[in-house]
Model the fold of this input.
Amino acid sequence: MCGIVGYIGTRQEAAPLLLEGLTRLEHRGYDSAGVAVMSARGVRVAKRAGRVRDLQDALPKRFAGKAGIGHTRWATHGPATDANAHPHADTKGDVAVVHNGIIDNAAALRAELVDAGVTLASDTDTEVIAHLVGRSEADTLEGKVAEALARLDGTYGLAVLHADFPDRLVVARNGSPLIVGVGDKEMHVASDLAALVRYTTTVAHLEDGEIATITAAGFTTYRADLTHTSRTAAHIDVDLAAYDVDSRDGHMLREMHEQPAAAERVLRGRLVERFGTAHLGGLNMDVRETRAIQRVKILGCGSAYYVGQMGASLIEELARIPADAEAASEFRYRDPVIEPDTLYVAVSQSGETIDTLLAVQEIRRKGGRVIGLVNVVGSAIAREVDGGVYLHAGPEVAVASTKALTTMFLGFSLLALQLGRVRYLSVADGKRMVAGLQALPEQIEQVLALSDELVEVAEQLAAAQSLFFVGRVRGFPVAREGAQKFKEITYRHAEAYQTSELKHGPLALISPAVPTVAVVPHDELTDRNVGALHEIAARGGPLVVVTHAEVDLGDVPCRRIDVPRSERELDPILLTLPLQLLAFHAATHLGLDVDKPRNLAKSVTVE
Ligand code: F6R
Done:
């Protein structure tokens, strides 16, 4: 959440590089943007509400400087206005600060600054940092920043420019990612690899509590007391083409259509046909340890939480280990009992979601074993866990998660299979699952081919202000994810419910104006589900039913969408795909920015 970039060199102008970097980070926050450069006459700031391209259009013609910092914002304190956009400056305009995170004691610090006669120019928590740095009497910029940081409670990834120290940027990290990139007589800083990889693949991830001085010649890292740490940069292997994403047709559409390839990648080399099992080397657990697991607790946020619920079902069904999923954002605050024989699983596309990261840290603090299902290699969660499974979905840019979610489901399928096969799952059932998984990429392709057929029904759904998404047991997390996608990008009220619970209250809302999207797989609950469809239809509720061709819906008036059947445990992912397509087409029909829905950001790095 919020993107940060920084640059210092000897040959190139900073501003174009900063703007390019911000464009690549815009999915992290897109309500306002700004840059500051070290010009011959001191620090200059340009910032405004709106997208990076608005900033680019408004940038003064002469905005020269070979060092600078930049920011794309996702508002926490104060609305998206020019004044609240970063960088923030001190009273004299000597200091510029960009910040990602939340300063919890900002209100007290703001009051203290006002009492001291400072006129605050914004509603933000970040501005206090600029003033604290500006007012510090330390001799060095590092000293000023360290003094300011000592006053802060909260999280930050930040970068500071100071007119009196034109040869350097000082950056710091506590809870929000910050990466230093080493170039040839130039250095880059970013909150995300995506902004760096075009320039350098020699990088250093700062650790929490670290401060760094960045000059054109290199970088030096310190602890909060300014004693040195020994961080060095290392070469990382990245697929540059994967970062050079083509956004002509929009990211979400492209990413949905990348799902068959992403599914192949996450399965590649991990299925053992002969023994009907999976092999996940990264779990770092031997068979005895795997057998000793008594429970599985899955933690994730948003869509990752819903796919975690699908994962919990897979684990219970295949491995017969009690499993459940919980929203990581709530977990740590209920002082959870951490059990030594429970396997905790953190699931995250970005690997940066602060709620999930804090849950992981809480589990480890209490001695629990936690593994990660993570997409972004080297991300904070990936580095924090005891072992894990990389999802290999490739960079996901659209705010609404699609291909990462599919790979999460497959990651859980592999985990469930491996756990199952060291317990009670037979070779025959294991082989059945392996074959089912191998067939999925092709079946995903078949569902995506329905896209054009779904445009009309999506447009009908878009006309409603309020909708239900319903499902039972395996179908319920599918409904939750469907409602999430729909509300996130269409701004329609979409509520997920267990089909069985409708009659206990929400049926009162069903009317011709409130459509229901029902998930009705061919399984042991089909008859019960069809019964509920009749109850909805009897009350005039329009119905869209995502189902299998084998399901007899009788005379229920509805628009049915048939998806191919897989093994029953794997069906949820194929049932999820039409819901992505419906949300996409509905949002497109409404003329909305599908890739950057209002109020949201791709990586949620604040609590
Ligand atoms: C919804 C969506 C979010 C994320 C959630 C967790 O489409 O993308 O709900 O799933 O913010 O993000 P990660 O997976 O990065 O931890």
